[in-house]
Structure formats: structure tokens, C-alpha cells
Amino acid sequence: MAIREVLKMGDPRLLAVAEPVLEFGTPELESLLADMRDTMRDLNGAGLAAPQIGVGLRVVIFGFDQNPRYPEADPVPFTVLINPTLTPLGEEQDEGWEGCLSVPGMRGLVPRYRNLRYTGFDALGSPIDRTVKDFHARVVQHEVDHLDGILYPRRIRDLTQFGFNDALFPGETLIDD
Q: How far apart, in Å, do the first and last CA atoms of the chain sit?
């Protein structure tokens, strides 16, 4: 459909808590999802939340076979997740480098739960219930944070592990976030 502008850190709309989707299978929802897919793929994103394009609804998409921004990551199945609920499975967390389309050119070392169950609905309102781990779990947590007005820099424990890609990883070619 259309590639939309991604809001950047500092825009107050990224700090708002998104509203639940009340109707599924509508032309408006399908149009939103098409725009989100086009935008995410155009920017080589691993995921995208509706608030990142200025839509305050509890909608995220994520997934890829291969992603140039995360070349070591295992594939994550393409998923539309609406009105999600996350349940950590245990207390174990891993720290991993994250970037964000709303925080371009930067990365930070972010702790996330390693094992996770997520539930919600697809575009037609059918239930989704998955148990995931590692990078898949990280991507879901990152995207769902957007629905609660949280950008990943707020999760960083050690700000010496947050900065511009070229300063953190000199000599490496990273796709700009």
C-alpha cells in the first residue's frame, strides 16, 4: 500500500500507551497492516509497531527469513500480533544489541527475557498463543514495548553500552537503523 514515515525518538506520540483494537478484519485494519509491512520491509526492519507510524493501536508486526540489520539472528516467522499479552517463562534474561527504526543509527545493550509466551490475535481476530525464546522473544518484547510508550534506551542498564553504530562498532558495516 504505502511506505509511511517512522516517528523518531523525541516525538511525544511514541510515549503514549496504545489503545486496544476492538474490530478485526476491517478494511482500515488491513490497510494499516499493509502500510506497516511495506514500511518495515523498505527499512529492513525486524518488526514495527503501529505507534511508530503515528497510529495509537495495539498492533505489531515482526518477522524475517534473513535481516541485514541482524545477520546472525535466526529466522522469525512473519507475524501480525494484535492486543498482545507477554508472559515471561522464568527469570532468565540475556543482554543483546538492539536498534530501532525510531532511534536511527544507534544501538544499545538491552536485557530481555530469554523465554516468553505471547498471546493475542491475528488480523481476523483468531487467537495466537506461542512460546518462543532467544531472538524471537527479544523482537516481540521490543515491539510490544512500543505499545506501552517505551523505547529500548529506557531498558539499557549501562549507558556506556549505548551509542552510535559507527562509534560502538568501528570498521563494521551496519545497516543504519
A: 22
- The span from the CA of 57 to the CA of 82, in Å, is 9
CA distance 140 to 61: 9
Element of type H or E holding 127 = strand 127-133
Closest among 133, 27, 153, 146 to 81, alpha carbons compared: 146
State how far the Cα of 94 lies from the Cα of 71, in Å rounded to an integer. Answer: 18
Looking at the 3D structure of the chain, how many domains does it have? 1
Centre a 10 Å sphere on the Cβ of residue 171 and count the other Cβ atoms it contains. Answer: 5
- Give pLDDT, residue 175: 59
Question: What pLDDT, on a 0 to 100 scale, did the predictor assign at position 177?
Answer: 46
The set of catalytic residues is 143
Residue 87's domain is classified under what CATH number?
3.90.45.10
Q: Is residue 7 part of a domain?
A: no
User: Residue 26 CA to chain centroid, in angstroms?
Assistant: 23
| pTM exceeding the 0.90 threshold for the entire prediction | yes
Contact 135, 98 (CB under 8 A): no
